[in-house]
Amino acid sequence: MNSELQYVKWWNSIEPFLFCFSEQSKVVCGYPISIFFIVVNEFCERFSYYGMRAVLVLYFKYFLQWDDDLATSIYHTFVALCYLTPILGAIVADSWLGKFKTIIYLSIVYAIGQVAMAVSAIHDITDSDRDGTPNNMTFHVVLSMVGLFLIALGTGGIKPCVAAFGGDQFDDHQEKQRRTFFSVFYLCINGGSLLSTIITPILRGQTCGIYSQQKCYALAFGVPAALMVVSLVVFIVGSGMYYKAKPEGNIMLSVCKCIGFAIKNRYRHRSKAYPKRKHWMDWAEEKYDRLLIAQIKMVLKVLFLYIPLPMFWTLFDQKGSRWTLQATTMDGNFGQLVIQPDQMQTFNPILILTLVPIMESVVYPLIKKCGFNFTPLKRMTVGMFLAALAFVCAGVVQLQIDKTLPIFPSTSESQLKLLNMGNNQLEVHLPNNFTVHLPPAQIDDLTSKPEEGNNAIRFVNGLATDLNVSTAAVNFGIIEPLTSSNYSLLKSGSQLCEYTIKFGFGSSYTIFIPSTFTFGPNCQESVTEVEEIKPNSVHMALQIPQYFLITAGEVMFSVTGLEFSYSQAPSNMKAVLQAGWLLTVAVGNFIVLIVAEIAKLPKKWAEFFLFASLLVAVCVIFSIMAYFYTYIDPTEIEAQFSQEKDEEDEDEKDKMRKTEEHVTKRGSVKSNDSDNAFKLSKM
């Protein structure tokens, strides 16, 4: 009896969830089952993309051994391509393959690109002498560039399709569920971004290899590649449950054809003999519907405001390039937590998830309550200004970093190394009456600061016999008498042999073992360390203000900009504005290349201030354009055209009805006349 009672209680508890599911309609709690596959697919794809992108610029710099400028240029070229290809993907999906097939085919291309990137980061493939450095760098460069091109084609091509395909799964009466889906969809984008920017830098920091242990970029790219394969498999598994709308033509093609005809027709009638028209798009009236022309006019009005917007993205996307490179020269020790340079990007998705609800629920209502009309265009202007402030902060931080950097000889200078192997200070006289006082075991040798937060260590043997030196991480081998070992790079932390020293980030030491050295419990007392390059002393926490400002600017600029664009465009022109918006991102990344090449500023802080100044100037221009902009209601305008069209149709019907009545009357008169004639003839 008790077991039956427990069964009834258990059944009553799960009954609501069981009856949420309908096998016939394939619905779970009011949502189509298919959208769960789409949501998982999006999470895995975003993890794959942002995880790969988080470590990309460091891969260029430290694996492919490119300088900062080349690494930054290729990084922004890749990002620009990722925002150009969505236009191609939208046209292919709407005009040819349909959304489902487009997602499948381009996801396969995407996965191949990710695998190619992972393979390109395996240093052992061409490391013939097994020293940890690839001997055929061309192979790795070519393979990585092919991989990046395929990734840009894949991620950009499916970008406009996945969200729209998810929206297609809902019926007209499921508007509430559709809105919830898009909210969860956006959460998956930020969740995938957040987790990937935390995990992949950790994977990159590991060491791996067959013959030699190096930074594991292959693993950092391999995990995103695996997630992309999972994303593709999950999407295919749900194939039988999807509603697959047939391609019905792409509105962007219609818009382009209409604009092209208007320009061509205007050029044909450029003579003064033809009367002018109110708007140059009116020259398309001979071929296209007046409602379509009016809708294009509304879109062009918004696209005109897009002209200054690329400059915001020029600054925003540098958080993945210049800001990450800046973090490599900073101290990432947060006590119990050590932050990798590429993990600082994690602050962006964290702050987005925090600031969006705060802005919508607190800041904007409070501003409205104060009586200030904070229109969308004003919000966008403030967002641009906040992004400029973020780069001012980055420039100030860079000035502090530059103060801690050692001064190395230029190409026209030489470096003289003086080593005092004795126990007493020496006085050395150089030409031009220059005197140097050398303390014991003083060495100064490096020409650049150790990268990736590593520490350069070498040992000097002051004994009369050979010395075998090894640490937990590096075996220095046999050091001959009165000679020194080569520099080896050690990570931050504690390296313990007979002598213990705690390293910071980016420092350089020479450890001198004197002739009086003897092995024993107190042997470390006779070992001398010389700090040649100080460790990074500017803390990564100083980057947090610039990340906060750039993210606050993104929330006010990007989220508001899309909201404004959608509110000012006709319902069937959303895709056109989405394409225009993505195009501003692509152009912004190309501007990074142009400005960097033209300016060629030797100091990074000067470049940061230059970009901030350019955005402030653009911000002023945009504010003037916004001041003269008149907000419209596209629905009302479309309704007016529909009403006019209905009235014209009604008038046309009235004319046809009157014509038919007139013809009928004339027909009846003719029949009466013929009847009378017939009667008269019979009489």
TrEMBL record:
InterPro entries: MFS_trans_sf, POT_fam, PTR2_symporter_CS
Ranges of compositional bias, category Basic and acidic residues: 653-664
Region of interest (Disordered), residue spans: 641-683
Substrates-to-products reaction catalysed: N-acetyl-D-muramoyl-L-alanyl-D-isoglutamine(out) + 2 H(+)(out) = N-acetyl-D-muramoyl-L-alanyl-D-isoglutamine(in) + 2 H(+)(in); N(alpha)-formyl-L-methionyl-L-leucyl-L-phenylalanine(out) + 2 H(+)(out) = N(alpha)-formyl-L-methionyl-L-leucyl-L-phenylalanine(in) + 2 H(+)(in); glycyl-L-glutamine(out) + H(+)(out) = glycyl-L-glutamine(in) + H(+)(in); L-leucyl-L-leucine(out) + H(+)(out) = L-leucyl-L-leucine(in) + H(+)(in)
Family recorded in the similarity comment: Belongs to the major facilitator superfamily. Proton-dependent oligopeptide transporter (POT/PTR) (TC 2.A.17) family.
Membrane topology: Multi-pass membrane protein
Localization annotation: Apical cell membrane; Cell membrane; Membrane
Source species: Oryzias latipes
GO molecular function: symporter activity
Gene Ontology annotations for the cellular component aspect, listed alphabetically: apical plasma membrane
Source taxon at top rank: Eukaryota
Functional summary from the UniProt entry: Electrogenic proton-coupled amino-acid transporter that transports oligopeptides of 2 to 4 amino acids with a preference for dipeptides. Transports neutral and monovalently charged peptides with a proton to peptide stoichiometry of 1:1 or 2:1. Primarily responsible for the absorption of dietary di- and tripeptides from the small intestinal lumen. Mediates transepithelial transport of muramyl and N-formylated bacterial dipeptides contributing to recognition of pathogenic bacteria by the mucosal immune system.
Membrane-traversing stretches: 47-64, 76-97, 103-125, 137-158, 184-204, 216-243, 298-316, 347-367, 379-401, 575-596, 608-629
One of the protein's GO biological processes: oligopeptide transport
Protein name as annotated: Solute carrier family 15 member 1
One Pfam family per UniProt: PTR2
UniProt KW keywords: Cell membrane, Glycoprotein, Membrane, Peptide transport, Protein transport, Symport, Transmembrane, Transmembrane helix, Transport
